[in-house]
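Figure caption, in words: inputs first, then the predicted bound structure.
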Amino acid sequence: MASRKVVALPVDTIAEYAARHPKAPHLHFSYGTAGFRTLGVVLDSVLFRVGILAALRSKRLDGKTIGVMITASHNPEEDNGVKLVDPRGEMLEAAWENHATTLANASNEEFLDVLRQFVQTARIDLSKPSRVVYGRDTRPTGEGLVQALRDGLAAIGAEGRDAGITTTPIVHYLVKAINTKGTKQEYGEDSEEGYFEKMSEAFRKLVSGRARIPQLIVDCANGVGAPIVKKMTEYLGETLPIVLVNTAIDTPGALNHNCGADFVKTRQTLPPSLHGMMKPGQRACSFDGDADRLMYYFIDERGYFAMLDGDKIAALVAAFIVDLARLAGLADKVKVGVVQTAYANGASTKYLSERLPVRCVPTGVKHLHHAAEQFDIGVYFEANGHGTVLFSPSTIERLETHEPSTPAQSTALKHLNNLVQLINQTVGDALSDMLLVEVVLAHKAYSAIEWNSLYSDLPNRLVKVYVPNRNVFKTEDAERRLVSPAGLQPKIEELARRYDGGRSFVRPSGTEDVVRVYSEAVLRSQADELAFRVAGLVYDEAGGDLNRRPKEFL
Ligand code: G16
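Bound structure (1,6-di-O-phosphono-alpha-D-glucopyranose present):
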């Protein structure tokens, strides 16, 4: 029997590198909904340690490539963050989130011991290779953080591949493409060009023979979406006429400022830079800072703003896929389902539940993704515009091998197979989702107005309250009920009962030092009033501040 070569941790090299990336003793980091996320200037030690952790994860998985994305998504420009991507392009396995938190918080003196112990308890074979692909968004702190990550990789001798300034979904795509290369499940060429080609080719096929698509305005949030969508337009040519706005990636302070998907969702209004640009009924959409969220909207004939958020995207897409499955003769063989969070508009849940199975899970793409995997085709979207569609491996195989019995079945089947190529199934992807929406609109011959009229949103409001410690807020029942601080939930319910159709939920954000308050009511004024009154309760309870951002790290 061949004996296994025992390789030890290169402790001296690690110690030498670690000395360049000390952790400030007063800081505590936690790997949350979307990885580590806080002010960019305090993340140096975290990135160094994440480099080591990513390499160890790769070794643990037999040298499979792990992804690292440096971004703070929709957060303000001074924030930054980092998340890890597992080999199939998915979010990091939950158990390793705790390891990430432990490693990030070890004091400088303890770090090597904590690392040694982790390698032992996680039974990591250090003789295995380690491969990591990493990218970053356009934030000013990104470059320095990439250097810290590279030092982490160098300290442990991992092989790093720099994907440069790119979107979060492209990093997820690359991870899956690299790990499936040469296998039966090959996902695509493992390059940015491969991503553009795969998607644009599917898009062209799907819209071929349809009426010319009218111009679409794309708000890039002054982030990485700008260069990426610009490149994609070269692949799309005439098939999708796009006007790019908010592309100032080099202007300090511009990222996500008065623009982007989060601005549109929370303010329920146009980014100011689009005022005067849009004709009534014209479609526009906003990405967020790392291009994984998408919001559509338009101005109606009376000049009112209408928002087509993640819930409306789910309704549009799910109905389209159900139709195609039926037309392909697969209605009884392919189970389509939808996954939402409690923060989905009640009207969307009603609309969808009347048509197909709907599951509700806590916020965070990892929860939605896993729940969507339970269906043959799982459509998941958060109201904030984060989502995608998953085709199970057996469904993909069925679609590839199914013998259609009529030309109509054959056409529908072809469309489904092209959707498998068009949709980035690793994670929510604003660009891929935007093309998907455009395909459905083209097939249905829907304008934004017709799409919007699938159902009427219940008036709702999302408010954030800055609090000294969001961790005192704990929820249950898919974030529909607060269990801590004790006594707050009954007060919220009591308030909600006073409004016709009133519903309100409170949860700690996973990405910012805030508590999010959602409310819904039959009348707009009541939804607003309920949200602000519940925010007031939170404020009183936690000593929050409705406007101020805590600066405790500065
Ligand atoms: C991340 C997750 C999303 C989630 C969002 C929630 O998004 O990937 O699934 O919806 O956080 O953020 P919060 O808890 O602050 O509302 P992103 O786009 O910020 O990476």
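The chain has four domains: 11-165, 193-306, 310-452, 460-552.
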